[in-house]
Specification:
The protein has twelve helices and 41 strands. With about 725 residues, it is mainly beta. The chain has four domains: about 180 residues, Immunoglobulin-like (Sandwich); about 300 residues, Coagulation Factor XIII, Chain A, domain 2 (Alpha-Beta Complex), CATH 3.90.260.10; about 110 residues, Sandwich (Immunoglobulin-like); about 90 residues, Immunoglobulin-like (Sandwich), CATH 2.60.40.10. Helix 4 crosses helix 6. This is protein-glutamine gamma-glutamyltransferase.
């Protein structure tokens, strides 16, 4: 009996609209009759007795997952990687005859399956079909059990495929019923040299594909701090949520076989700036309508919330949150990825290699005229892949950045940009190399504005931006300095050649160089400062000239966001020093907590700008420094021996060391393989008061795990800690 109209797809692919969702499906009929007369033959009863039918399909989930390095995914379905064989066992109602029986496997994805677009794959069991790039073979036959090997094409679409086993007879095609348990996810394969995301070292694959907890670095270049981040790419529901992100962004299925295309689309879909993407960026300091960026501990909570709410953007994010969640998405799909931190990162400079700091006649920062800023740090991602659209030397690590800054081809996105191309100043290749180059190589230009509004360049710092680029070392909690992969050392011949290449690629000429050197430098130094402490700034004035110099210095202290945007000026002080030829003198500036504490914004950063005037030469100089205030400690303790399936008690302690009340406090606990997100709220913590949060958890899997804790409130952020837990196997 024909249950529904037979499904046919036009052979001309242009007649079918792009299928944009992995979730939508249109399945063929269970039985499709051949519309043809057939000769008189056996009775229907005899035909039915002799006919072949499918009793069951075993996807061999556990065995295949282990073989495909997908065993960590908490998902009951089979998950495999491209260009690697997986095996399934088909049980028939009678012995299978490879020569006489005609059986096919069908793999379908999306709402408009089409053989010409790689969304409808037909594989005859035991027979070659040259025009199909997927492969199948009969591995073993044991009576009515047949083991079939299937190898997805090395460039096939990434996503969830539906599987049908089809018995072809003279009467027609008999398909198995639609069964979601037999659906199979196909991912990129960094273990296979034929895949564009291939990575040859296993230690790198373990770090950049399989590691589900990472470290994101922040602070300042000479005082680096860090926070752990739960990437959680294997957690339950995360893979489906990542595919949902692509579906919500209406990324055509036919584009999903290209790593270059997927990461470019993903960098746009991670922010909600123009396409209702995953995260809403917010740098205002007001997060009452959502979660403060500093309060998140990982990606699964965000991705699952986005998917559960049907694509409603999640509030709120800043650069490290965008980078952390994007890292999860691409690792989950099988693309090697890592989070990068660029210290002293130029922003909002329209790619002109200039960051302008404007001072008034008295040497104070003119906040109304200073529009550009240097972010204390900025996080983006690198993905590892071959770039078939570029010369071979520009394959390897590629930058993608989902923090909404500038549009690229009409959307807020950035990349993939070849790191090698940026280093060499070859900026004409796609995508967005000029913007990235400016973030790393802009000059900081100090101007002085007179009463008539005329600007005069005081000095240029060519080495302030892109001071240090770091990422997490493989199998370590330390950072790796990768600055040399992005740029050559300052003031070297090679660096000058790169700048010339950049100008030939369309970057503006640096016609303001060279300036006459003042012969005197000022360096600002300070020790590590805890939030709420008094401290001292030391100004080291080095006179490199052959005569004594008298320097009058103006020190401006501002509260600043990590983006370099200043909030309130809390300090203005003038100092003078006489420095003999070829000597160094030091000045100290006292900074009291009572001066800055009332004006603090999130992440506790202070920006100091020094303007110096040399009396003898009438020349000027300027410099600046960001001081990151260290937050108080959060303590995590464990009681008992961690073992799979057994209760483990965790205690998190915090004491308020300040003389002000902390209101609306959130405490998060997070750890893949250990505990689902735990959120505890406190209406207030009094000065000197403390809180203790105890929770019991049951580890799910053995091995090394990381438990992450984060305390956050409007007056205090970046209070984090983590605890490594080595979980034993169940007895």
């Amino acid at each position: 009996m024909l249950l529904q109209p037979s499904l046919t797809w036009p052979s001309i692919s242009g007649r079918i609209p792009f299928a944009k969702s992995n979730l939508d499906e249109y399945n063929p009929s269970e039985f499709v009759a051949f519309d043809a007369f057939r000769p008189r033959g056996p009775t229907d009863e005899e035909t039915q007795a002799a006919s072949l039918s499918v009793l069951s399909v075993d996807m061999r989930v556990a065995e295949n997952k282990k073989d495909h390095n997908t065993h960590k995914y908490v998902n009951s379905n089979l998950i495999v990687r491209r260009n690697k064989e997986f095996t399934i066992i088909v049980k028939f109602n009678r012995d299978f005859n490879e020569q006489q029986d005609n059986v096919e496997l069908e793999f379908l994805i999306g709402s408009s399956p089409d053989e010409n677009r790689g969304t409808y794959i037909i594989l005859p069991i035991g027979k070659e079909k040259p025009e199909v790039r997927w492969k199948s073979r009969v591995v073993e036959t044991q009576g009515n059990y047949v083991t079939v090997g299937v190898t997805p094409d090395t460039s096939c679409i990434i996503g969830r495929f539906r599987i049908f086993v089809v018995v072809v007879s003279d009467l027609g095609k008999q398909r198995t019923e639609r069964n979601t348990d037999t659906d199979v996810y196909v991912l990129f394969n960094p273990w296979d040299p034929a895949d564009h995301v291939y990575m040859d070292k296993d230690e790198d694959r373990q770090e950049y594909v399989m590691n589900d907890v990472g470290i994101i670095y922040n602070g300042e270049f000479n005082n680096i701090t860090s926070r752990s981040w739960n990437f959680g790419q294997f957690e339950q529901g995360v893979l489906d949520a990542c595919l949902f992100v692509l579906d919500s962004g209406k990324v055509p299925l036919v584009f999903r076989g290209s790593a270059t295309e997927i990461v470019r689309q993903a960098s746009a879909l991670m922010n909600a700036q123009d396409d209702d993407g995953v995260l809403v960026g917010n740098w205002s300091g007001d997060y009452t309508e959502g979660t403060a960026p500093t309060a998140w501990t990982g990606s699964p909570e965000i991705l699952l919330k986005y998917a559960k709410e049907g694509g409603e953007p999640v509030c709120f994010a800043q650069c490290w949150v965008f980078a952390g969640v994007l890292n999860t998405l691409v690792r989950c799909l099988g693309i090697p990825a890592r989070v990068i931190t660029n210290f002293c990162s130029a922003h909002d400079n329209t790619g002109n290699l200039k960051t302008d700091i404007v001072l008034d006649e008295d040497g104070k920062v003119d906040r109304s005229r200073t529009k550009d800023s240097v972010w204390n740090y900025h996080c983006w991602n690198e993905v590892y892949m071959k770039r078939p659209d570029l010369p071979e030397k520009f394959s390897g690590w590629q930058v993608i950045d989902s923090t909404p800054q500038e549009t690229s081809d009409g959307l807020y996105r950035c990349g993939p940009t070849s790191v090698n191309a940026v280093k060499e100043g070859e900026l004409s290749y796609p995508f967005d190399a000029k913007f990235l180059f400016a973030e790393l190589n802009s000059d900081v230009i100090y101007h002085q504005c007179n009463k008539q509004g005329k600007l005069k360049i005081l000095n240029v710092d060519t080495a302030y931006v892109g001071k240090l680029v770091v990422t997490k070392k493989p199998d370590s909690s330390d950072y790796e300095d990768i600055t040399s992969t992005y740029k050559y050392p300052e003031k070297t011949v090679k660096e000058r050649e790169v700048m010339q290449n950049a100008e030939r690629s369309g970057m503006p000429a640096r016609d303001y160089l060279p300036l006459t050197e003042a012969g005197v430098t000022i360096e600002i130094q300070t020790d590590t400062v805890k939030m709420g402490d008094n401290f001292k700034l030391t100004l080291n004035i080095n006179n490199q000239t052959s005569q004594t110099c008298t320097i009058n210095a103006t020190i401006t202290g501002c509260v600043a966001f990590y983006t370099g945007v200043t909030s309130t000026t809390f300090k203005l002080e003038n100092k003078s020093a006489t420095v003999e030829a070829s000597k160094t003198e030091s000045l100290t500036v006292d900074v009291n907590a009572s001066e800055y504490t009332p004006y603090l914004v999130e992440q506790g950063k202070l920006l100091f700008v020094v303007y110096g005037h040399i009396e003898e030469t009438d020349m000027s100089l300027s410099t600046m420094k960001v001081v990151t205030l260290q937050p108080p400690k959060l303590t995590i303790m464990m009681s008992g021996t961690p073992q799979v399936g057994k209760d483990l008690m965790i205690s998190v302690d915090f004491q308020n060391p300040y003389n002000f009340i902390l209101h609306n406090v959130q405490l998060r606990l997070d750890g893949p393989g250990l505990i689902p997100i735990k959120l505890k709220t406190y209406s207030q913590i009094l000065p000197g008061g403390s809180v203790k949060y105890k929770v019991s958890m049951v580890p799910r899997t053995p091995g090394k795990k990381v438990l992450i804790a984060c305390l956050d409130c409007p007056l205090l952020s970046q209070v984090t800690n983590e605890l490594e837990i080595e979980t034993l196997k169940a007895e």
